[in-house]
Design goal:
This protein is of the alpha+beta class and 108 residues long. It is built from two helices and five strands, in the order βββαββα. The protein has helices at 48-54, 87-100; strands at residues 20-24, 28-33, 42-45, 60-69, 76-81. Strands 1-2-5-4-3 form a five-stranded antiparallel β-sheet, covered by helices on one side. It is globular, with a radius of gyration of 16 Å.
Length: 108
Amino acid sequence: MPFFKITESNSAATVDFNIQVHKVNEVGLTVKSQHFLSKGTYIELNGDLIQSITGREKPLRGQISDGHIDEETHLYHGLLEFDAQDLELLANIRHYLLKNGHHTEESP
């Protein structure tokens, strides 16, 4: 059968799956999953923990800037950097970190 290239404008897809917030710092948050999150992957995070971290009810959106696999757990880790231009978000993140400490944060 012939194969045809699909243009980027016609190739959008949405996939929903559970991930865990592994670590939060001023730069961004690291998530872990059984699914590979390659660099450049656009993700949207929702849930009570995300609202608590960001201080907002809307989803946290961004791209994975770095990823690797944990050789012990065989889970993929991906870094979602916060928007450095969003001063309100950064203030909310700092407030969360001061309130909860700079420890690793796990979500169900």
